[in-house]
Amino acid sequence: MSETKSRSVRDKDVHSLPALLARNVAQFGDKAAYREKQFGIWQSWTWREAAEDIEALALGLLIKGINPGDHVAIIGQNRPHFYMTMVAVQSVGAVPVPVYQDAVAEEIAYVLDHCGARFAVVEDQEQVDKVIEVKDRLPAIDHIIYVAPRGLRKYDHSALSQFDVLQEEGRAARAELQSELDARRDALGYDDTCVMLYTSGTTGRPKGVVLSNRNIIETSKASAEFDHLKSDEDILAYLPMAWVGDFIFSVGQAYWAGFCVNCPESTDTLSTDLREIGPTYYFAPPRVFEGQLTQVMIRMEDAGRLKQWLFRKFMDHARSVGPAMLDGADVGTWDRLKYKLGELFVYGPLKNTLGFSKVRVGYTAGEAIGPEIFDFYRGLGINLKQLYGQTEASVFITQQPDNEVRSDTVGIPSPGVEVKIADSGEVYYRSPGVFVEYYKNAESTASTKDAEGWVATGDAGFIEEGTGHLKIIDRAKDVGKTASGALFAPKYVENKLKFFPNILEAVVFGADREMCTAFINIDLTAVGNWAERNNIAYASYQELAGHPDVLATIQSHIEEVNTSLASDAMLSGCQIHRFLVLHKELDADDGELTRTRKVRRAPIEEKYADLIAALYDGSDSVSTETEVTYEDGRKGSIKATLKICDAKVADVKMMEAAE
Predict the structure, then answer these.
(1) Is the domain of 434 the same as that of 583?
(2) C or N: which end of the chain has fewer Cβ atoms within 10 Å?
(3) pLDDT (tens digit per residue) in 76-124
């Protein structure tokens, strides 16, 4: 029997993650399922070892009285323990609810209260303390299970258990509880809940998105087959476990294809761990690619003249022919030879430094990526593609097939997905991955998903004639008109600005106004490196952000973007006339960004109303006082006087004449 046929027989009755685990033990038992770096050494679990640890934890949870349908919060960094916890929780008929590990106590309280979590599986003392701090508001919480025992010896353990100890208790009770565990696993159905994930909450309180086994498994199967993912893939799991992308890549696809999930030692060792693993399948949101490019540019600024010349020369060539070569287009012999030289001297060493030497398939999503950034990585020969997805879709709505990759589209509908555009321009989809409901929120469920299963994305876009590729313009609620009637699409402009290494974040204003303006966050790493090279002393982010030379540099970047916008008839009205550099970085703890670093426009407009007013009333400067949240949760305030700068706007008619 062929591999394809034998696998289809094994897969046809696989209707839950525990069932997929059993299949993987039978098929890949001695292959690595997880790796984790601890104290500089990679530890690994085979599928068989992982299954044993998962079963032991599931038996331990039964000892603690977990019931079918209970919700279990999971809070911590990416670790095999937590990925295995998700499967153990489902094995006993309960529902895993990953929570952002950097969430403050108040955010954790909301999620745990909303889902009515009875158990919390957390990483260490910090996370235990967060839950205990708000426990008086969480009457449903019965027990906290922690992985790292350091600092917890003197805590009251009547409602606390150590992860390893609970597993040992489970192993000891196997004879007594095995039949109950088997019965619960066998009872799991395709339409039972697999996981509940909370949305980022850009416009209000996060919503609990209920995803079924059918949603996750069907989507994982289709997307894995789309990119020919096999059991020999390696991925690095470093993005928040509470984010749907990490769940589908590190759990859904990993269990469907049987590949290995690698967890870094810490955020500080991430780049080193990435190089050591050399993933073949890689995902990162645009901010990660932007940050990596910033680091590359900083290193090149510190390099010698010959190295800088080689880098510029070969990268110019890479941008011109690299993407075409990836797409299998016809490229001349001399261009291919020159590219091979570039691979030897620049592209190969650079990919190795980034940890991308083995990447066969790479994706970016979450928000639009700047075309210049996208083309930079494609030029290196990295098969970076875009996908478009949502939590409510179990990620995948559209994907870019190989040889159909472009920076200005998000691809064609993923297998099994239907896409349509409403008269308003809003994108709708339906698929096997469409979520079951918003937990305890029937009204929002009904307004998002209609009776026929079509889901409103909230994004404006159109399907390109001839290719069938989807183009996303912006969030539907953010797309508008300026006072002159010109199209206003802030995210498009913000992404162009963030291509520059000196700009970390940008927020553009202009809806119903006579002109567009912007807030800018500088990238402290990039600008700080420039300051050091130029012997410019500074004591804080605020001081560096207000330096005249920094303002002049940001102005030049904005004017370059304005020139680019002027050549686009549809978006020429989005040119930025005035801007200021903020005195603090936008921060999720201050409610200005989501935990996935998406801009929360309404809170920003409310919080910085005085700064926005100054951008439009002709002021040269504005004094302000802003409340901030420190790492330990305390509140404080910072005062600043910000300079407001004008930027030159390109003449659209002159640009058209030049063309």
Answers:
(1) no
(2) C
(3) 999 999 999 999 999 999 999 999 998 888 899 999 999 999 999 999 9
CB atoms closer than 10 angstroms to residue 165: 13
> What is the band of 16 on the pLDDT scale with cuts at 50, 70, 90?
very high
- pLDDT score recorded for residue 327: 85
Q: What tokens appear for 303 in the block?
A: 């390099």
Burial of 330 (0-12, 13-18, 19+ CB in 10 A): exposed
Residue 293: burial class (beta carbons within 10 Å; 0-12, 13-18, 19+) = buried
Measured in degrees and rounded to the nearest 5, phi and psi for residue 502 equal -75, -15
d(CA 122, CA 165): 14
Burial of 4 (0-12, 13-18, 19+ CB in 10 A): exposed
Three-state SS sequence of 290-330: HHHHHHHHHHHHCCCHHHHHHHHHHHHHHHHHHHHHHCCCC
Looking at the structure, do residues 536 and 416 belong to the same domain, yes or no? no
Query: What are the two backbone dihedrals, phi and then psi, of residue 272, each rounded to the nearest 5 degrees?
Result: -65, -45
Can you tell me the distance from the alpha carbon of 381 to that of 319, in angstroms, rounded to the nearest whole number? 10
Do 489 and 467 sit in the same domain of this protein? no
Domain that holds residue 177: 16-212
Q: Whole-angstrom Cα distance, residue 121 to residue 96?
A: 10
Q: How far apart are CA 47 and CA 559, in angstroms?
A: 55
Side-chain half-sphere CA neighbours of 651 within 13 A? 5
Domain of 132: which CATH number? Answer: 3.40.50.12780
The token pair at 153 is 């010896």
Task: Quick: pLDDT tens for 496-518.
Answer: 898 788 999 999 999 999 999 99
334 and 356 belong to one structural domain: yes
Which of 159-173, 465-479, 538-552 has the least mean pLDDT? 465-479
Tally of CB atoms within 10 A around 339? 21
Choose the weakest-confidence range: 13-17, 401-405, 606-610, 655-659. 655-659
CATH code of residue 629: 3.30.300.30
Of 408 and 580, more confident: 580
Measured in residues, the chain has a length of 659
Residues of the chain above pLDDT 70, percent: 96
